[in-house]
Structure prediction request, 688 residues.
Amino acid sequence: MLKIENLHARVEDKEILKGINLEIKPGEVHAIMGPNGAGKSTLSSVIAGHEDFEVTNGSVFLDGENLDELDPEERAHKGIFLSFQYPVEIPGVSVTNFIKAAINANRKAKGLEDMPANEMLKKIKEKSSLLEIDRKFLSRSLNEGFSGGEKKRNEIFQMAMLEPKVAILDETDSGLDIDALRIVANGVNKLKSKDNAVLVITHYQRLLDYIVPDFVHVLYNGKIVKSGTKELALELEEKGYDWIKQEAAH
Amino acid sequence: MELKEKLLASFAVFENNLDLEDPILDLRNDSIKVFENKGFPTKKDEAWKYTSLAKIQNTDYSVFPKDEDCVNYQEVKKYFLHEIETYKLVFIDGVYSSFLSETTHMGIDVCLMSAAFKKPQYKQLIDKYFNKAASKEDSLSALNTSFSKEGAFIYIPKNTVADKPIEIINFSSGVEAALMIQPRNMIIADQGAEMQLIERHQSLTSNETLTNVVSELFAEQNAKIDLYKIQNDSLSASLIDNTYIDQKRDSLVSVHTFSFGGKLTRNNLNFYQNGANINSILKGVTIIGDKQHVDHHTLVHHREPNCESHQDYKGIFDQSSTGVFNGKIIVDKLAQKTNAFQQNNNILMEDKATINSKPQLEIFADDVKCSHGCTIGQLDEDVLFYLQSRGIPKKEGRALLMYAFANNVLESVALPVVKKRINKIIAKKLGVELGFSI
Prediction:
């Protein structure tokens, strides 16, 4: 479904990704772990098409289609979704209006009319209850004054509404208490199907207790240096990242 | 001939043609002298430092309106709030258009300044109110006073609520190569009266138009007035709007000014609080581009205790457009417990766009709350990326953000049809359709 081939990327003169290879099949959950500065967030930004990063080599494919030349919104239309580590605040636009604008922009790109109001309402109701979001929350300005947990819940709510093929969760567990973590993870698990895929990017193993990965990859110094199953995450949790760094140095 | 000389010469002709019974003849003569002495303001005047009138004085304007003119209703329908019932006072090139208007004398008076000057039953109101709020010293207001002839005259009697919103629309048709008009509006809400007004200036032509309008609003005790100003977007139209508001105790007046361009727009919006427990609301949205220039000069003079004022102006400046915001708040020594707030936020879309923003607070009382804030910024690229990652293209994303930025001001618009109309104009200006309306 998502295929990353020999991906190199830099920001200004600094090379951050130095040849990433990864393939995610439909129905799979992959986790990328790694120490700070390994390039985890860069990888998620590059997949989503952020202009600040220059891809110097390699490619990203979605269902066999090369995404390299596509703008971020075009990637979103194809089915890429990025849950941000730090979602932005947009005062003056409510959660509901924002998601309406997003849904209708995606429909427009597919040549569809705006979603009928009653259908939209029904969908919002259904998906917000999945994430235990109440009505008041929906009329607040997007992310303005939200707690860390509310911001992340809102990200997953948007994912639920947009129904992407590949969801990338960038440090979704940071800033979450255990209850919020449980709600967010439950939401992700309910949205998982055999037709979509999830890429979890995280520093800590904690989230992976709730969103159980099929594969775990360790990113270090711009490369995937180790891959394994969920046991690898537990090992990292126990031993830290130093042994990975040492292995990589040899 | 310079415009000043031309106007002075024209006044002699104008005066000759006046009725002998003209109730403000002396005032006209005093006023033209003020203009003669002071002339057009220049950049040397502190209040005109960032707005030069030089470029609008080179045109050879026709200063006397022709007879009643006609435009096709279908052509101008879009400028009316045709979705709802309203009273309408429509002027084409400064001349009243009976065909497009809908006046009334049933319980309230929605009629013409020219009628109020002539008819004996209005003499008392003219004597009591005319030119009582407007500045006697301001040369452009004085110029308007000396030539005052036509405009809106609205009187809502005691404890009466105007049953429909009132539209005042000034069209310029282009029948003249260049035209200067000076509408004069007088709007009175007597004790406990209420009204909603829409004032629109719209040029229908690429011929030059210069409008120097004076509006006086009087809100007597416990009266309520909402005024929405919609200012046009023709690149050949210039507007100098002098609005003076006299508020008595317990009254509430709100003025929303929507400026969408013009060659030059200058808004002098002056509030005078002459009583306790008054609330004054001043809001504005400015969205301009090209070489357009919009200048907001506001004044709120707090003269009595326990009053409030709330100002919120948002500006979006594209290309090489220029903006000015100067917000003056005076709190007299007597005006204890005043709450005065002022906010001015601006977005510059391009490097060549300019905004000069200046709060000017003169506070002589010691127990007051006054705050002011000003921001000038650009759209945040990280926010745009966030929108793109949700499938919203950059252009729409920009529009959405600007929309959101202006939203605070739109929120307080009490007439849904006006809100919808402004929504539409903004969306069109930004060149997008949004998937929702705010």
In short: Residues 191 and 220 of chain B are 5 Å apart (CA to CA).
